[in-house]
Amino acid sequence: MQTNASTRDYTRYTITKDDRIRFLGRQWCLKKNNSEWDPDEALKWDEGVVIETVDDQLPRQTEALSYADIDRYRREKKLECEVGYFSARNAIARRRKMPIADL
Fold first, then answer.
1. pTM of the predicted model, to two decimals?
2. What are the tens digits of pLDDT across the range 50-76?
3. Angle CA(36)–CA(56)–CA(21) in degrees, nearest 5?
């Protein structure tokens, strides 16, 4: 199969609403359109996603990443994705690992 030289082939990595991203030394997640979380409201476009910081560091940051950027940063080990970090299942698992404080 021949490919067009102008066509860029890459694995299409994406980020979901349950993923936590480590990028530029900070923690990030998908940016939301409004205060209520609706996965269909996450800011996306055909070429990638928009992410925002979720740590307590200032200033807050927002970045637009294309799927090609995500692929490149992952290969260069500049972006790590903790898949499912914000999922209910992982929240319960993290809670189970925490010791219960004495009352």
1. 0.68
2. 899 999 899 999 999 998 899 999 999
3. 70
Cα angle for residues 3, 72, 18 (degrees, 5° grid): 115
| pLDDT (0 to 100) of residue 44 | 58
- Quick check: 21 and 86 in contact, CB under 8 A? no
What is the pLDDT at residue 60?
Answer: 92
Task: Give residue 24's region: left, alpha or beta (phi > 0; psi -120 to 50).
Answer: left
Amino acid letter, residue 95: R
CA-wise closest residue to 48 among 38, 36, 62, 34: 62
CA angle 32, 41, 18 (to 5 degrees): 65
Return the sign of the alpha-carbon dihedral for residues 18, 24, 27, 29: negative
